Amino acid sequence: MANPTRGVGWAGRRAGTGSIIDVEAFLVTGGNRLEGTVEVPGAKNSVLKLMAAALLAPGPSVITHVPDILDVRIMAELVRRLGAEVDYRPAQGELTIDVPAELGHKADYDLVRKMRASIAVLGPLIARAGVADVALPGGDAIGSRGLDMHIEGLERMGATFESSHGFLIAKAPGGLHGAQIWLDFPSVGATENLVMAAVLAKGTTVIDNVAREPEIVDLCEMLNQMGARIEGLGSSTLTVDGVEGLHPVRHATVSDRIVAGTWAAMAAITAGDITIDYAHTGHLEIALDKLVSAGVSIEQTANGFRVRMDRRPKAVDIVTLPYPGFPTDLQPQFIALNAVAEGVSMVTENLFEARFRFVNELTRLGANVRTDGHHAFIKGRKRLSGAPVEATDVRAGVGLVMAGLVAEGTTTVLDVHHIDRGYARFTDLLTGLGGKIERIDPDVAASA
Length: 448
Ligand code: UD1
Fold this sequence. Notes:
Blueprint: E1 25-29, E2 35-39, H1 44-54, E3 59-64, H2 70-81, E4 85-89, E5 94-99, E6 106-107, H3 109-112, H4 122-129, E7 131-135, H5 148-156, E8 160-164, E9 167-171, E10 180-182, H6 188-198, E11 204-208, H7 214-225, E12 229-231, E13 237-241, E14 250-252, H8 257-269, E15 273-277, H9 285-294, E16 297-300, E17 304-308, E18 318-319, H10 331-339, E19 344-348, H11 357-363, E20 368-372, E21 375-379, E22 384-385, E23 388-390, H12 394-406, E24 407-408, E25 410-414, H13 417-420, H14 426-432, E26 436-440, H15 442-447
Parallel strand pairs: 2-15, 3-14, 6-7, 10-11, 18-19, 22-24, 23-25
Antiparallel strand pairs: 1-25, 1-26, 3-5, 4-5, 7-9, 8-9, 11-13, 12-13, 15-17, 16-17, 19-21, 20-21
Helix pairs in contact: 1-2, 1-7, 4-6, 5-6, 6-7, 8-9, 8-10, 8-12, 10-12, 11-12
The structure holds uridine-diphosphate-N-acetylglucosamine (UD1).
Uridine-diphosphate-N-acetylglucosamine (UD1) is lined by residues 45, 48, 117, 143-150, 185, 187-190, 211, 328-329, 351-352.
């Protein structure tokens, strides 16, 4: 079913609500095998940071391979409020951000609360404006997600911090200087903020134990194209020689490995056959290896890879870790797979403690999952049965849709705005592969 509210504009998708969030659900009917080809867009977790990075250079930067997702619209509004002009062309997957010589410095709570990645403007704002007022974030309901490493690293570069009325206020009136920084843990967000601050700092910054995700390499490549001097891309130490100024560029967003991994897991759970274009197997090595252990065959294609499955999956153990370990953002999808697999499995979540909230929803479909601390024990069941469930975050949401695709009867997934945050044209693509999914208004459906 076409969504009647599409095209209304991001700030008022349901007439009268004035809300950025859709109050919509997906109705999923189980039983169909997924077959066909999908193209993966640019990565959500990269493009949001590339948009923040554009703020570092006055003038128009162009970002391509931009996914048509809610989070891009939220970030576009945030950079607009900082004074940039944004021209977003979702049909072309292109975004132009024209940055003024003088930037604003306030990231408001109404936007930061909806998307934790808003914190990525902290580094660019201190570097360029010498001041940043960023509301303390909310975002996915997946754990506490502190900011201590962002703050300590920026303090080493000469910034001072105070918190007041829900805002984090950072100041570096004389500019930032180079520093030696050791991260306690390879945090994605802290690595990105520190690199974006260091590119305009005076002198050399060495950041050790950084995160090595492909999205961070993508960000550093864009910064280097803009004139930054970053070495060690993809390794656990980044060395940044500060420069006087950066210039705008045109940059293509790296492909979304989590979306690619999700389609691969969907092929596995539905005994399907999906060719995934614009995707890199090299960014998904452990996840694809787990799928092979579950019974799929994977074949490299000219532009991506093909995943085929012809049996009930075998259970696989998973341990989430920073890249190149198994990604936490594929953990719910693999729990869904294990829920219908042959055998028992253990999934260990090491990054976000609240990510197992999704398990309570999955058990409503009949899954046999028990959690203890950061471990989940799963006994595969031959059949799940459809029921209403709630998406608690973007990846939990797709995990529930996956389970719904193989459950008997229909599954209503509520709060699908979480899925819209990260998956472009989700229902269209799924329908194109033969899945049965409709976007519905749950209130209307309940009263019908
Ligand atoms: C990013 C991704 C998210 C992914 C995660 C891990 C975006 C928009 N989001 O989130 O999809 O699941 O990486 O791959 O790119 N932490 C601290 N102090 C800090 C920073 C982090 O304690 O200063 C903790 C967090 O609470 C969390 C863990 O470190 O438990 C991982 O956080 P981090 O790697 O920073 O993830 P995000 O950047 O938030």
